[in-house]
Write a structure and sequence with these properties.
Layout: H1 35-40, H2 45-52, H3 56-62, H4 65-76, H5 88-96, E1 109-121, E2 126-129, H6 144-151, E3 153-156, E4 162-173, H7 175-180, H8 185-199, E5 218-225, H9 232-235, E6 241-249, E7 255-262, H10 272-275, E8 290-294, E9 297-303, E10 310-318, E11 325-334
Antiparallel strand pairs: 1-4, 2-3, 2-7, 4-5, 5-11, 6-10, 7-9, 8-9, 10-11
Helix pairs in contact: 2-3, 4-5
């Protein structure tokens, strides 16, 4: 009489060999010694998602909020900012999915956007300036406009603290409507020349631009809170930018510079690297934008060709009337 054959047992790919000792709702700290949790610390967002879709067990581990918190802070290179109202996977997505300021509005404008990085606002006070000098003294003035005109910087309060994403974009209005309105071949040639230079990220003058009606070609240092794109009020256009102040430099400008600083950390050693201007702006004939970011500040500079001056504008966006500042811009346009 032959031996009784054993019934074959299937292997469930969704069951961890150690899962019998854990509840489905075990917190992330339970898995710190698990090899796959350690592997997750070395994966970017795309790889985490690819691993999560392989089976239910991996999905449960890889979708833990603590995994995405670690990945987000690691890839942004910032410390933990405190409690946030969104899931970390949502914050990671909005920070790394290629979104930029014109994602939802003003699609008629051509944008070249370059990501700089992330920094922290630890206090609700910001200093915005187009002059990156070593020492900034803040005098008492009657209005913000007078501060901009006289001191070349301005102050903003009620800044939303936390992680901010910084970038620089150069923009030019769509060429087609302007080309259709021009019959002079010389102007058409100038248009194509401008477009070519623009793709090289140089700041050039739009040949038919009216400063009062057209943004033309400009450089903009753009910073916004990491939660901005998750807010429906921004996506729907309810929140918009307002002008904080502006001024003209009616003489040759060697460079277009801008800086955004957490006022609380303006004298920090790390922030002083930005004021070491010559160490990072590049050689005089180098026309490519150069950027510098520290833990609590960000700055940009583009060396300029011969020009007649600059128009500088400071813009901010608040979360509703009287709300916190959630986005800041410093734009510079050739006169």
């Amino acid at each position: 009489m032959g031996k009784r054959l054993r019934e074959a047992r299937s292997i469930c790919c969704c069951a961890s060999p150690r899962s019998s000792h854990r509840t489905p709702h075990a917190i992330f700290s339970w898995y710190e010694e698990d090899v796959w949790t350690e592997v997750a610390k070395f994966l970017d967002g795309k790889s985490l998602v690819m691993l999560a879709v392989t089976c239910k067990w991996f999905h449960r581990i890889m979708m833990e909020d603590s995994v995405w918190k670690y990945a987000c802070l690691r890839d942004l290179r910032v410390p933990y900012p405190g409690n946030v109202p969104f899931k970390w996977i949502e914050l990671y997505t909005t920070a790394f999915d290629g979104s930029h300021t014109y994602m939802f509005r003003q699609q008629e404008k051509h944008i070249d956007w370059m990501r700089i990085g992330a920094f922290l606002f630890d206090s609700p006070d910001a200093l915005l300036t187009e002059s990156l000098i070593e020492s900034i003294k803040i005098p008492k003035v009657e209005t913000m406009e007078k501060m901009v005109q006289k001191e070349s910087f301005c102050l903003l309060n009620n800044i939303k603290t936390g992680i901010w994403i910084a970038g620089i974009f150069n923009q030019i209005v769509s060429l087609l409507p302007l080309i259709q309105s021009c019959s002079n071949m010389g102007i058409l040639t100038a248009f194509y020349s401008t477009a070519f230079l623009f793709e090289d990220l140089q700041l050039v003058r739009c040949p038919v631009c009216d400063l009062d009606t057209c943004d033309g070609t400009m450089q903009t240092l753009d910073a916004r809170h990491i939660e901005l794109f998750l807010k429906e009020e921004y996506r729907s256009g309810i929140w918009d930018y307002y002008l904080v102040g502006s001024r003209n430099i009616n003489k040759q400008a060697d460079g277009a510079s801008g800086g955004i600083f957490d006022l609380k950390h303006i004298n920090d050693e790390s922030t002083s690297d930005i004021f070491d201007y010559k160490s990072w702006v590049g050689k005089r004939m180098d026309r490519q934008p150069k950027t510098k970011i520290t833990l609590h500040a960000v700055a940009v500079n583009t060396n300029l060709q011969e020009n007649e001056g600059l128009q500088i504008k400071y813009h901010a966006m608040r979360a509703g009337k009287g709300g916190e500042v959630i986005s800041i811009r410093i734009s510079q346009q050739l006169l």
